[in-house]
Write a structure and sequence with these properties.
Length: about 260
């Protein structure tokens, strides 16, 4: 079976002196140190199977205007002339290959791009399911999120939103819980404080210190296939109480009496 990523990889690496690196967690293809293509899946929860190409502002504008259901201006890199292609929207792969070559030519040295021809490659014969694109949509993960949502709704002034594409819950204006994926596994991020953080991490393999928020007392929990909801309720309330305002805590305490 050939996936969209397999086809992109085969196509890009067939171009002269191309190397594949991982940048911002996504496969990126470079020539002479310059990136010309990046494959992304569900970037910040956008549920897109996408290939972004460094193709120049003028070509970017033409493509997006000509077929806005197929092409888009990606966040962050769009202002620098990158364009996004939605690979699961029916664009012919011969056209994808032509655009990859155009992006390569846009950044490659002349001695590499001169007389460049489209290389042979295998088009995908595998369609990604909604669950493959966004694993949060699996039955197991949806059940977890539904139960977590029900628990969070019992706290005063809680709002659910998406934070960088991840389901998150706010106590007033402060986030106190985030659900996201770590290498395909569901993770629940909560604040427990620095004093409780290290003992928990050392004693229980389900917990880890997150890369960016860990120094502020946050922790990641991998609930697994059989979540301990009594434990989650305690951790959730600890995090909520840390960020909630006095009036919210007062309302919560009245409910618990």
């Amino acid at each position: 079976m050939t996936s969209p990523y397999n086809s992109v990889q085969q196509l890009c690496l067939a171009l002269p002196q191309t190397e594949e690196v991982v940048s911002h967690s996504f496969p990126t293809f470079k020539v002479a140190g310059k990136a010309f293509a990046c494959y992304s899946l569900n970037h910040h929860g956008d549920e897109k199977v996408a290939l972004t190409l460094n193709i120049g502002l003028e070509t970017q504008r033409q493509l997006v205007l000509s077929a806005p259901t197929l092409f888009f201006i990606p966040p962050y890199s769009g202002s620098k002339g990158w364009v996004g292609i939605e690979l699961n929207r029916g664009l012919q792969w011969d056209r994808v290959a032509e655009l990859v070559c155009e992006a390569y030519t846009h950044v490659a040295p002349l001695n590499l791009s001169k007389n460049l021809s489209v290389p042979s490659f295998t088009a995908p014969d595998e369609s990604l399911t909604a669950q493959q694109i966004n694993p949060l949509k699996t039955i197991e993960n949806r059940k977890f999120l539904e139960r977590l949502r029900a628990l969070c709704s019992t706290y005063p002034e809680v709002e659910e939103l998406h934070q960088f594409g991840h389901p998150a819950f706010k106590a007033g204006k402060k986030t106190f819980a985030v659900v996201y994926l770590i290498e395909g596994s569901l993770a629940l991020q909560l604040w427990i404080g620095l004093a409780a953080q290290q003992p928990l991490v050392k004693s229980d393999s389900r917990f880890r210190v997150p890369a960016y928020a860990g120094h502020n007392g946050w922790i990641d929990m991998i609930p697994g296939t059989n979540p301990n909801w009594d434990e989650i309720m305690v951790l959730l309330e600890t995090s909520y109480r840390h960020f909630a305002l006095k009036r919210m805590l007062s309302a919560l305490n009245q409910r618990l009496r």
